[in-house]
Amino acid sequence: MEQRFTFNQVASVYRAARPEYPDALVEDVVTYADLKTKDRILEVGCGTGQATVGFAKRGFPILAIDPGPEMLRAAREGLADFENVELLETTFEGWPADQAGFRLIIAAQSWHWVSPEMRFSKAAEVLQRGGSLAVFGHVPVGIPAPLLERFKEIYLRQIGKWGSPPEA
Fold first, then answer.
1. Which class in CATH covers the domain with range 3-136?
2. For residue 88, what are the β-bridge partners?
3. HEC profile for 29-94?
4. 44 pairs with which residues across the strands?
5. Residue limits of the Methyltransferase domain (predicted)?
6. CB-based contacts of 161: which residues, under 8 Å, 6+ apart?
7. I need a surface site. Which of 17, 51, 95, 143 has the fewest CB within 10 A?
């Protein structure tokens, strides 16, 4: 199984552990993209909806795609109050690009999972002229050394080998 699909197996943990995105970030993206009320947003890899909610609260019509059915189930629960959000189970690569005309594409912590050979060309294909692509995520600030050593012990016990620290 490709690593990008493993999150689906832990959707409830992912939803509980992954923080939402600050309103200031969402506002910066909205301002930069010069979004108007009816402008459509495509979200690539919505996961359980942590980034989706910030844009949904502002009323923008959103098509949020993710390949994980459990991730989407969790997203549906968290976004149940937003009629402006449509959730679709697919990868960006597998999504038919027949719905052009998005003013903004957002990818929160997901863009690196999309095929490098097609991600930018497909994004350009579905964006309106003058549209924007916003790729953002959480930046780790480092784990304190004693805690990292404990994680390393647990990781080695479970996996058997140690590579770069998580999220490095």
1. alpha beta
2. 65
3. HHHHHCCCCCCCEEEECCCCCCCHHHHHCCCCCEEEEECCHHHHHHHHHHCCCCCCEEEEECCCCC
4. 65
5. 41-131
6. none
7. 17
User: Which amino acid does the sequence have at 63?
Assistant: L
Whole-angstrom Cα distance, residue 64 to residue 85? 7
| Lookup result for tokens 């459509």 | 40
User: What is the pTM for the complete model shown?
Assistant: 0.79
Q: And the tokens for 97?
A: 């690009």
Residue written as token pair 């010069």: 34
- Return per-residue pLDDT of the chain as tens, 168 residues: 565 555 656 556 566 667 788 999 999 999 999 999 999 999 999 998 999 999 999 999 999 999 999 889 999 999 999 999 999 999 999 999 887 789 999 999 899 889 999 999 999 999 999 999 999 988 767 777 888 888 888 888 888 877 765 554
Contact 41, 53 (CB under 8 A): no
Are 63 and 43 a contacting pair, CB within 8 Å? yes
Domain boundaries, the chain: 3-136, 142-168
**Amino acid (one-letter) located at 82:** F
Owner of token pair 């095929």 = 115
